Amino acid sequence: xxxxxxxxxxxxxxxxxxxxxxxxxxxxxxxxxxxxxxxxxxxxxxxxxxxxxxxxxxxxxxxxxxxxxxxxxxxxxxxxxxxxxxxxxxxxxxxxxxxxxxxxxxxxxxxxxxxxxxxxxxxxxxxxxxxxxxxxxxxxxxxxxxxxxxxxxxxxxxxxxxxxxxxxxxxxxxxxxxxxxxxxxxxxxxxxxxxxxxxxxxxxxxxxxxxxxxxxxxxxxxxxxxxxxxxxxxxxxxxxxxxxxxxxxxxxxxxxxxxxxxxxxxxxxxxxxxxxxxxxxxxxxxxxxxxxxxxxxxxxxxxxxxxxxxxxxxxxxxxxxxxxxxxxxxxxxxxxxxxxxxxxxxxxxxxxxxxxxxxxxxxxxxxxxxxxxxxxxxxxxxxxxxxxxxxxxxxxxxxxxxxxxxxxxxxxxxxxxxxxxxxxxxxxxxxxxxxxxxxxxxxxxxxxxxxxxxx
Length: 455
Hints:
alpha/beta, Rossmann fold, UDP-N-acetylmuramoyl-L-alanine:D-glutamate ligase, Protein-Tyrosine Phosphatase, Chain A, 3 domains, nine-stranded mixed beta sheet, six-stranded mixed beta sheet, 15 helices, 32% helix, 21% strand, globular
């Protein structure tokens, strides 16, 4: 734990008591702060130690110095949480736990990764490569452990932080040594007032970067290209573009599965079991760029990427039997992410659906020729059936277990293929989280792989 001594003698309210909220309470108490805390969930409140549980509408805001907001609580849109409104009216600043971390450790070395898709894989890959090279490089933030749960800072530590748009919005002071934007596509638009607001928040990661910093930016969408053009004007800032499918001077790019940096092949990703598809090539290129900036030689970068085990729920290969492979991509909670999975395979028996998000399925359409049949589940079933009509053969499955049985039987009948869960939807209609949905998929297909269930 990192004691927040910068808060000594101050009073703060921690709103939202998930793991990061509880870590914030503990770090603030250890630093000598007076901590109020609240969560609408009684069990979450009962789990907190060292803080006084007070509902926001019972708080005397004139006595507070800071409101620490959980990333999942609305800051601006669709409308600010009432506690945010009250804090602003009282002149109380509103921040997140990452902001407290960077204030406590202003000299900390930080690699910060964001993007609509791929940020967890890229974060984990960078952390893995650095750790495999013998460096002290904990992974935290939106993946792994809350940043304030890390051990107190040590010399030469590199903090590898995944940051969501919600977290960036609550972290105005961050100045990463390496800031990475992988890509931007429509997501969380309700929380940022539309696409313009969403893009603006992602770009905030780079607001304080300058001399001594490096921006690694994917340029396969126009938002990244626009950002590179803007960042090129920042004095002293090094900008390293990342591209897939085309060479570019000064960029780290991928052609035919090979990662090039400065025109030299760094590594070959073809056949990499845990990094299938062009989207993972983008992730790997960004990881190469970041690790080069941090001084790693090519040999250590190559060995680190070669040994990267991948992440659960992100095109996770569960296994194969009788020519049928099973992949869990439950983390694909929007069409853009699911499109990346479809682009990675042929002969797909695709399981899609759940709680749909705003936006169309247009990103998926170019890859439906790879799909043999689509099995629709959850709240999106009827809507997806209409939007995909004439594009793919849709089967109304309703539930995940039924979809798996149908997909498995069809794949057996057709002589093999890929059974892929890549929902393009949130999970909350039928599952508590994308992890729970992915775990259920794994539990259901494992008996098929092990031959315990006959078609």
